[in-house]
Amino acid sequence: MSTTTATTTTTVIVTGSSSGIGLDVARAFLARGAAVVLNGRDPQRLAEAAAGLGRPERVAAVAGSIGDAATGEALVRAAVERFGGVDVLVNNAGTFAPRPFTEVTERELDGYLTGNLKGTYLTTQAVVRRLREQGRGGSVVNIGTVLVDHALTGFPASAPVVSKGGVHALTVSLAAELAPERIRVNLVAPGVVRTPLHGGVDVDAFGGVALLNRVGEVDEIAEAVVYLAGAEFVTGHALRVDGGHVTGRS
User: Fold this and answer.
1) Most CB atoms within 10 A, among 10, 46, 48, 116?
2) With 0-12 CB in 10 A as exposed, 13-18 as middle and 19+ as buried, what is 1?
3) Helix 20-31 with 43-53: angle, nearest 10 deg
4) What is the pLDDT of residues 96-154, one digit of tens each?
5) CATH number assigned to the domain with residue range 11-241, chosen from the 4 options 3.30.1330.60, 3.40.50.720, 3.40.50.150, 3.90.1170.30
């Protein structure tokens, strides 16, 4: 029996949303009345994240790697079956870690290209196909990095930055291609943000790279994502949320 329900509620798919930026993005949309489809590779962590949001009537969850095209298709299917459609995609899932250029293995490079770029590409394909069927436009917000525009000598990260650079390029290309269908594509480029991605590293030590002399918080990235998702006259834009990292130094 179909569980599809007719609704005017905005439905948002957020990849990589079992923790960190993605989870806070989901929380921000829920606070504004949206329905959210979560995604993560670990089913248990994903289920715990979904339960922690406390809105079971407006939360669905799909486990799987976005590097697999079937995951994007499953996310769209969940959005349609639970909430009647999809309106916004937030491509947050990805990995990022420093490693000197000559020490990067082929396997590591493939992992970044698959998880960051290919996964974003495939998931967006699945969502755009659905947006076209619905015929009412939509919004895609990608997550990039300011390191594409301003690298750091003490933070060698060529492999993840190259993959994220592809996401920046994809944003501009799709903004042009999809504009006639009223599908907007934008990107948030965070600076250093306090997330579980940093592990046990003292992330506050990086505060000095920004004019505001501090690192960012996940809710500040979430606010930028929500803005771009609803900004009807903005497309092809990369919004830096970096405390002035690219502009200069404190």
Assistant:
1) 116
2) exposed
3) 30
4) 889 999 999 999 999 999 999 999 999 999 999 999 999 999 999 999 999 999 988 88
5) 3.40.50.720
